[in-house]
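[PROTEIN RECORD]
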Amino acid sequence: MALIFRNIEIPLFLEIEPDILLKFPVVIRKNNLYYRKPLIVSGSNTWQVAGETVVRGFRQLGMKTENIIVKSNTIEQVNRVREKIRASETDVIIGVGGGRVIDVGKFAASLERVNFFSVPTAPSHDGIASPIAVIKEGDKLVRYGARMPVGVIIDLTIISRAPKETIYAGFGDLISNLTAVQDWEIACKMGKERFDSFAASIAETQAQAIMSNIGYSPLRQIGFLKKLVTGLVMSGIAMAIAGSSRPSSGAEHIISHALDRLLPKPLPHGIQVGIATIFTCALQGGPWWDLKQICQRIGFPVSPNEVNIPKSTFLEAVAVAPKLRQDRFTILNKIRKERYLEIYDKVYSEKEVEKEIKPERHFKESCVSTSQPNALVIPVT
């Protein structure tokens, strides 16, 4: 009988440590990599933060580099990068920046069939090493399948200086794995999708890790940040294994996409997702209180009111969410709309926010299960 196995595309290497970019030539050499003409894709700020350091590293190896500054994650910016790749005969792209820069570089590299390195300067979401790129086309956000990066290099010194809201955003995106996996399992039980326990286990474990033994206000601590970025990278790998964003995206993400439509100025994606995760956990019958207390320990907002999202707007987002992605079955497809207001008042009431923090329980005991996406068009403002 022939052996049965599956091939999974993952990065060749992952380097996470303080000041790792200063050792960039060492990282390249020890992985036996050589490129004729690297192209550095960055934002205007991230060029100064880290892009110039990457260029110096390549020059120490005798490699000439090109660079391009991108201003957003639009399809026009992707096409600019593609044109630069062809004109300069680039054979590798290094995306240096936040989520939008990395998505543009990742998608352009995939379309032009060249290698891609991910060098994030902020831990804002799990696109650091995922097979998905979110690109804006006109007034819509489109999620495209993309190649995984060849390597991921994360300098914790740079990450520790990132804006606080980007750290909160990454935290919110990571903890949502817990409710996302629950939604995935619900969909499987309803006969809507196939469940991949291997991918789900990876996603759950990383969310549990970031919440375990968490102290108060650890945002700039290297240990906390290493757990966070490691979890975001592994979430991307879980998506690669599953062949979709299912391990890290459920009702909480669709609610956030709905908020993007309804709010005049949406908040960072991961912050909206994190707030919606508490609500989703309650809908699922999970220990939303424990999750809420853990969020409060690091100063993460735990209610729409804290970030000036009106109650009516949040509830409208919850009602609209299932229509935005009809191919994704979640707890929102099982719960009657009348329950939304009841759960909202239970989870986000002022009395609940003011209660004394209780000792944390292990999240897995009652909420976590035991057990190339198609393009998705999402209207945005």
